[in-house]
From TrEMBL:
Source species: Actinoplanes missouriensis (strain ATCC 14538 / DSM 43046 / CBS 188.64 / JCM 3121 / NBRC 102363 / NCIMB 12654 / NRRL B-3342 / UNCC 431)
Name this polypeptide is given: Putative phospholipid-binding protein
Family, as annotated: Belongs to the UPF0098 family.
Transmembrane annotation, as ranges: none
UniProt-listed Pfam families: PBP
């Protein structure tokens, strides 16, 4: 079976536009392949979240949400790898494989069904997938969601509370 299909749009192009700020990483580079450390164990990775740092967010920021989304997953709805909510405004970086999470922060269930970072694992032989790591600056101390919330529900809440967003978009491919 062929997985040839149209390229999915950037998910944030489909939302109301907000100002941007800066996200950087010592582990990933925009537009460049992810190291296998950040891939899922099912494809030989270590399932570690990459280091991320951010700056230049608006003064009205009261907290952050960090997400990782693969718009290229052959699902019709992409694939959520990480949804980390309710980071305090004082947290402006996450170390590689961040554990424990900062006080008050938690992960909702990703599309693997787990409450953690789930590494990249595109189908073998598929084209390189884009992984959109986004840091959302929010205007509340925390979203009113629980760990049982879906990534879509978190995204719906973000639509009303995001004051700025920073993204970095590495790629990953499993050779077939």
């Amino acid at each position: 079976m062929s997985l040839d299909r149209a390229l999915a749009p950037d998910p944030y192009d489909l939302l109301p536009q907000v100002p941007s700020f800066t996200v950087t990483s010592t582990d990933v580079t925009d537009g460049q392949p992810l190291d296998e450390l950040y891939a899922h164990t099912s494809v030989g990775g270590k399932n570690l979240s990459p280091q991320l740092s951010w700056s230049g967010f608006p003064d009205e920021t009261r907290g952050f949400v960090v997400t990782c989304f693969d718009p290229d997953a052959p699902t019709g709805s992409g694939f959520w790898h990480w949804v980390l909510v309710n980071l305090p405004v004082s947290v402006t970086s996450l170390e590689r494989g961040v554990e424990p999470l900062p006080d008050g922060a938690f992960c909702v269930r990703n599309d693997y069904g787990e409450r953690n970072y789930g590494g990249s694992a595109p189908p073998p032989g598929d084209r390189p997938h884009r992984y959109v790591f986004a840091v959302h600056a929010i205007d509340v101390d925390g979203l009113e969601v629980t760990p049982d919330a879906s990534p879509a529900y978190v995204g719906f809440n973000l639509a009303f509370h995001t004051v700025a967003r920073a993204t970095i978009r590495p790629t990953f491919q499993v050779r077939g």
